[in-house]
Structure formats: structure tokens, C-alpha cells
Design brief:
1 helix, 11-stranded mixed beta barrel, Porin, globular, 67% strand, mainly beta
Amino acid sequence: MYRIINFIFIFFGSCWQLQAQHPGTWNILNVRYPLNSKWTVFSEGQIRSLSFYNDFHYHELGGGVIYRPSRRIAFTLAGGEYLTYSEGGNFVSPVRSDEFRVWPQLTINQSFGRLILEHRYRSEFRFVTSGFRMRFRSRLGATLPLNRREMEPGTIYLGASEELFFTNKAPYFERNRFILLVGRQFSKRITMHLGYVHQFDYRINDETGSDFVQVSLQTTLGQ
């Protein structure tokens, strides 16, 4: 266990040297309720800031349904409201972007020993202040349990993901988002992670910020 803890500190210490001096914060709460072995409903809220727990500029609230025909495949249909405020303080008016979004998603999981790969493909139908937009997202993620052979209560794990954002209009490429994280599954109901997010925006006029400390809590009800 001490080796795992030391490795985690070294791992994130190295990442910290690479990121901006004043990162923002990115907080996530995800609540899930399985209806049966195949169907799950969920709700998620996020709040983000441009400096460390200050200059809050973004929040979202949404939810949807997940259908799992097998352990490897999941289909999701969800939507929500996404608001981006002006910079220079906490939720400064006027609102830069007031968006309602609907998104279908396909997730495919693969296992190679302990390593779990996740391929995620999402289409976003975005009803924003300036009109209607389309966006497409492709993410490759990896999860590695450290003290267990698979994900189960008590597991400490490392994760990383790389996500590309595209639109249906030139120049098409919009954003690249990279995440490194360490997490723990405390029980069947509660999982938490701490991560570092870096994103590069090529052409985007709503959400801002390039470096964030991410804190995520996922809880599953009814188990």
C-alpha cells in the first residue's frame, strides 16, 4: 500500500510541474440508479472555475438513461442545460452561452489483463444562444487497477483519457482534452477520483480555461 501511495504522489507531482501555475477547478457529482441488469437512469451536475475554487464561470445539470445489452457495450441517451458566464468573477453576467444539449452515446469496453480500455463516441445536438450546432466527440480512456486484479470495492486505480471534439463545419476540429486521474472505489455505491485536466481549444467561443484540478464523486443508489 505504501508503494502505491508513493507512486501516486510521484505521478501527480510530475504532472503538476507540467500544468499552469493557477489551475481552475472542475467538480462532478454523478448519481445512478439501476432499474435492472440492463437499464440505468442517471443525473449529473458539474461546476467549474478558472482559478483554484474562485472565478466560477460554468455549471451544468443533466441526466439520461443507459442501456447495456452486454458487459462490453452501453448505449446512452441524455440531455441537460449548460451555462457559461463571463470572466472576471463568480458567475458574472451576462451569460456568454446558455445551451440545451441532447446527446446519444456509444461506449465499448475492452479488457487486457488488468487494463481496461474504453472507447466512447458521442454526438451532441446543441441548442445555444446563437442558434443550433452539431458536435462529435471521440474519447479513448484507460483504467488500471493497482491493488486488485479488477475493479471492485477497495480498488485504487489510475486512469487516463484523450478526447477529440469536432463540428460539422470548417475547420471541423474544435478541441482536444487530456485527463490523468487517480481514484478509489470505496464500495459498490461510491467511487471518487482526483484528476488533472488539460485542454486545447482551437476554435470555441463558449467554455474557457485550459488547466483544471478535477474532483469527481459517483454514487449508485439502490444497491
